Amino acid sequence: MRPQGQQGGDEAHDHVVVVVQLVVIVHRLVVLVVAALLVWFGTKNALLDLGSYRMPSLIPLTVYTAIVPIAGVLIFLFTLEQLICGWQNGFEGPEDRDDTREAVL
Prior knowledge:
mainly alpha; two-stranded antiparallel sheet; 2 strands; 63% helix; 4% strand
């Protein structure tokens, strides 16, 4: 929101907002791709580790490596939620708002 006396620069401000939103969307899409890769290759790794055991307890290594695809799913879901909420409500957070107030004396 702009002060009442300021009229110029609205087009430049709108252009900056669009560029920032594009950067945020691209960033989150990259995170989605990385999360999908974590799920895919983490699952392959966990399945390969089913045949390997830790000595002397004979616990399959999958017990330790199964967290990678689980974390990938959680990252994917959280990033998808951020994208959907950003498209619906805008990507700006509380730190991006221009709601400075004058000091009351």
